[in-house]
Amino acid sequence: MLELRGVSIDRGGRRIVDGVDLQLRPGEHLGLLGVSGSGKSSLLKLAAGLLVPSQGGYRNDFAHPLLVFQEPRLLPWRRVRANVEIPLRAAGCGATEARRRAGEWLERVGLGAQADAWPGQLSGGMAQRAALARAFALEPDLLLLDEPFSALDPGLRASLGEVCRSLLAQTRAALICVSHHPDELVGLVDRCALLDAGSLRRFDIDDRRPGQSRDQVAAALHAALVHPGVLSR
Ligand SMILES: Nc1ncnc2c1ncn2[C@@H]1O[C@H](COP(=O)(O)OP(=O)(O)OP(=O)(O)O)[C@@H](O)[C@H]1O
Predict the structure, then answer these.
(1) Which of 75, 80, 84, 195 has its CA 20 to 30 A from that of 124?
(2) Last residue of a domain, one of 84, 107, 139
(3) Is 70 part of any domain?
(4) CATH number for the domain including 172?
């Protein structure tokens, strides 16, 4: 369980996040929206243990939070398979087990045939799938995605969203996904929160007008991004 009670974050002498309340239980999937600079990445870093709150109550019972960035950040001088194996070895996994798990997760993201390729030989979508395989192989109980599909075209964003959804269903990891694209969040998360001038507003996808299509929910989220006042605190 991740619990924030009245959490504020100051950075560079400025209050970035102001009095945020948030709860995330094991297996829950939360989308985080907000305009640029609203503090989304700072909240993810807090959940990853890379930042501490300046004020407020904070509890994080997730044992293995893992942050995935917008760029795949693969080591260009190591083959794709090694890119997945290296963090596993660093986490204490034996060589045989690391090789087995790397192979298995590369298969699951559809990169079995590219395991011996160099990162430079992959397309942007393939590289991001390799980054997802590397993340899931580490078996996080809390996955923190910071705009993971933003650099990709809409078709690839949708297909990587599907890959991610199916991997989450297999592992039952909790998720916080930051995105500027409501359409990529709908279907991936159970609820969304919108950071607006440091404060959090809720948007429960399941509770909101049952029967709404995905497109309608995405449109409502889009409207909330532009006019955050329509959402409840
Ligand atoms: N290391 C830092 N030192 C000082 N200020 C910082 C630091 N990192 C971020 N900030 C500031 O904190 C604010 C929030 O940044 P953050 O990256 O959390 O926002 P964001 O919503 O994720 O933005 P974006 O969507 O553009 O990635 C910004 O005004 C940023 O300039």
Answers:
(1) 195
(2) 139
(3) no
(4) 3.40.50.300
Question: Is residue 181 located within the same domain as residue 222?
Answer: yes
pLDDT digits (tens, 9 = 90+) for 132-187: 999 999 999 999 999 888 777 777 777 788 888 888 888 889 999 998 888 778 77
Look up the ipTM and state it.
0.95
Neighbour-count burial of 203, counting CB atoms closer than 10 A to its CB (0-12 exposed, 13-18 middle, 19+ buried) = buried
CA 37 – ligand 1 centroid, Å: 5
Q: How distant, in Å, are the alpha carbons of 22, 106, 132, 175 from that of 137?
A: 27, 9, 8, 15
**Residue ranges lining ligand 1, Cβ < 6 Å:** 11-12, 16, 34, 36-42
Please state the domain count of the chain.
2
**Residue 57, number of CB atoms within 10 A of its CB:** 11
Contact 32, 176 (CB under 8 A): yes
Gap from CA of 19 to ligand 1 centroid (Å): 17
Q: What is the domain extent for residue 155?
A: 2-64+140-226
Residue 186's Cβ-side half-sphere holds a number of Cα atoms within 13 Å equal to 18
**C-beta separation of 72 from 128 below 8 A:** yes
Dist CA 41 CA 34 (whole Å): 10
pTM of the full structure: 0.87
User: 74, 119 in Cβ contact below 8 A?
Assistant: yes
User: Are residues 180 and 218 located together in one domain of the fold?
Assistant: yes
CA of 174 to the centre of ligand 1 (A): 24
